[in-house]
Amino acid sequence: MSFFDKIFGGKEEASEQKSFWKKIESENDLKKAIDQSFHHKIAIFKHSTSCFISKTVLRNFEKEIENLEQKVELYYLDLLAHRPISNKIASDLKVTHQSPQLIVIENGKAINNASHQDISVDQL
């Protein structure tokens, strides 16, 4: 990993990913996530792996989650690798696309969302 990758985020992003994330990499993964929202709240974190701000927000959110007593099912979308799915989320849930973005879903509907520095466990 180069010096710039260490500072600004590089291709090794996936290896640093926390174990509590469930990845969304297909429309089927998205459907399964939305289906789960009918049983309990879920959250989708849309992340741009090439953006320093997105990486910083993700790390800060992960630190908050590790200390959270409430258990929430969390999904992670690499929106650069899966932009069509990101567009589908925006369209289906009627939420304007942002990056980074946290979308909280219950009963198949977005009930809360935040972007950039507004992302925190308070949205959950």
Number of helices: 4
- Count of the separate structural domains: 1
Spans of at least 5 consecutive residues with low confidence: 10-15
Helix content: 25-40%
By CATH, the architecture is named 3-Layer(aba) Sandwich
Strand content: 15-25%
Please write the string of helix (H) and strand (E) elements. Answer: HEHEHEHEE
Looking at how many chains there are and whether they match, the oligomeric state comes to single chain
CATH topology: Glutaredoxin
Biggest β-sheet: strands ordered side by side in the sheet? 1-3-2-4-5
Please report the distance between the alpha carbons of the first and last residues: 34 Å
What is the arithmetic mean of pLDDT?
Answer: 87
- Radius of gyration from CA coordinates: 14 Å
Instruction: Please give the CATH class.
Output: Alpha Beta
- Under CATH, the homologous superfamily reads Glutaredoxin
Q: Biggest β-sheet: count, sense, barrel?
A: 5 strands, mixed
- Overall number of strands: 5
- How does the overall form come out from the CA principal axes? globular
Q: Structural class per helix/strand content?
A: alpha/beta
